[in-house]
Amino acid sequence: MDDADQVVVLERGEHVLLITLNRPDVRNAVNAAVANGIAAGLVELDEDPELRVGILTGAPPGFCSGMDLKAYLAGESPWIPDRGFAGIAQRGSHKPLIAAVEGFAMAGGFEIALACDLIVAARGTRFAIPEVKRGLFAGAGALIHLPRRIPHNIAVEMALTGDPVLAERLYDFGLVNRLSEPGGALDAARELAAAIIANSPLAIRTTKEALRRNRDLALDAAWEQQNELWATIFASPDAREGALAFAEKRAPKWQTS
Questions:
Q1: Is residue 216 domain-resident?
Q2: Distance (Å, rounded) from C-alpha 91 to C-alpha 198?
């Protein structure tokens, strides 16, 4: 199959696996095929001893717009058992994973970036969790990760307004590790990967595991609680109305209060 026909493209380099979301016609929105493709990439990254770092990016015009709402309306699920949304949100890779973000990372797309260990972004890139505008809530990790990684009040503002925040501001808060000029995020991510690869593979894996355990001692409980809330919201009339309104390019008419 030609790369142009694949919704997720895997490209092996020297010790690096590049995972590219490849649905540019729908802004790299996540459907079931994309979720399975990302999960397969993470398995390859973890199981191949020659691979030490993964880079996750999106084909132009941007990183990822989130869940494919039309696929959702058709009954598709972009959740993978034990891995969560997009095959990554709840469980990523054992090896370091870098998000290289250009243009936008919206909704579940932002949550995919948050599931990575490091974020490199081009100046002017917009990040947002606009789920409340669609009758949903950010149930794929943003409400868990953001308050732990940026000032709590900023996370609250992003979650309740759904408005975008630029990469430059998130860099100031420490969420974005490195800024690049537009078009340069992938090159900057490769430079960061090279700095990691220069170190001991065993030490890198052990360090990542220690960091995860030290930071996320209560993470399993947080996910259990959030998944219960998400199941209720996802099945609500407002969730379907939000998706329909988006597909029909109209203002939503909420049914619940």
A1: no
A2: 25
126-128 β-sheet, strand order: 104-106, 126-128, 165-166
Q: What is the dihedral of CA 225, 149, 210, 188, to 10 degrees?
A: 130
Domain count, the chain: 1
- Which CATH number do you get for residue 171? 3.90.226.10
Residue 78 covered by a domain: yes
Q: CA gyration radius for the chain?
A: 17
Question: Annotated active-site positions, please?
Answer: 111, 131
Q: pTM higher than 0.90, yes or no?
A: no
Q: Give the CB-side neighbour count of residue 146, counting CA atoms within 13 A.
A: 25
Whether the Cβ atoms of residue 34 and residue 8 lie closer than 8 Å to each other: yes
Report how far residue 11's alpha carbon sits from residue 20's, in angstroms, rounded to the nearest whole number: 8
> What digits encode the pLDDT tens for the residues 159-204?
999 999 999 999 999 999 999 999 999 999 999 999 999 988 888 8
- The pLDDT tens digits for 112-141 are 999 999 999 999 999 999 998 888 888 888
The parent domain of residue 95 ranges over: 3-180
Rounded Cα distance, 88 and 23, in Å: 17
